[in-house]
Design goal:
188 residues, alpha/beta, 8-stranded mixed beta sheet, 5 helices, 21% helix, 22% strand
Length: 188
């Protein structure tokens, strides 16, 4: 059994001042395309959650990723995560990796290490410099509750209700903590 990557990219990104998913990295690729390409390098299956009506071509996403639409994305990350989790019903994977579309610097080796450690019954976090990062790996036992999420807290309530099932894996990759909230973060 594998691990499915679910890239959340339906948010508004209001602190960025524009659609950060389309922002260019120094190599010319868009932020979202780069994040998805990283996932495709490691995961057998990559699903990208976009706003209702958006298409992979709108962002230059590579072939091989499946678009999932979140009609209630404007109501918060919980709604986008629920839409993505609902799409997992056809998967036989043991876990899902929740990646954020604005975190393009996670090393493929880190992703592979997390995939190897993921299980069907745990919630796995990478830990760098004492801080929990992304992606978070949810075992398939948690998928039904993920489909019920709402609001803007993502899966925080699922994590808090299952602290005894949370596992951390120490990594040396600072990319698990680096996201893009402002244009200045693109050049760091």
């Amino acid at each position: 059994m594998t691990v499915v990557a679910l890239v959340l990219a339906a948010g508004q990104g209001s602190r960025f001042g524009a659609d950060k998913r389309r922002a260019s990295l120094p190599d010319g690729r868009s932020l979202l395309a780069h994040s998805v390409e990283r996932a495709l390098a490691v995961f057998d299956e990559v699903r990208v959650v976009l706003r209702d009506g958006e298409q992979a071509e709108d962002f230059g996403l590579p072939a091989g990723c499946r678009v999932i639409h979140s009609p209630d994305a404007a109501l918060g990350m919980g709604h986008s995560l629920a839409a993505g989790a609902a799409s997992l019903g056809d998967s036989d994977a043991r876990a899902v990796a929740i990646l954020l579309g604005d975190m393009p610097w996670i090393a493929p080796e880190t992703l592979r290490t997390l995939v190897d450690a993921a299980s069907a019954s745990t919630i796995l976090f990478p830990l760098h410099d004492g801080q929990r990062g992304h992606p978070v790996m949810f075992g398939r036992e948690f998928w039904p509750v993920l489909t019920q999420l709402t609001g803007d807290e993502g899966a925080r309530t699922v994590v808090q209700a299952n602290r005894d099932r949370c596992v951390t894996l120490t990594v040396t990759d600072s990319g698990v903590l680096r996201d893009v909230d402002t244009p200045a973060a693109l050049s760091i």
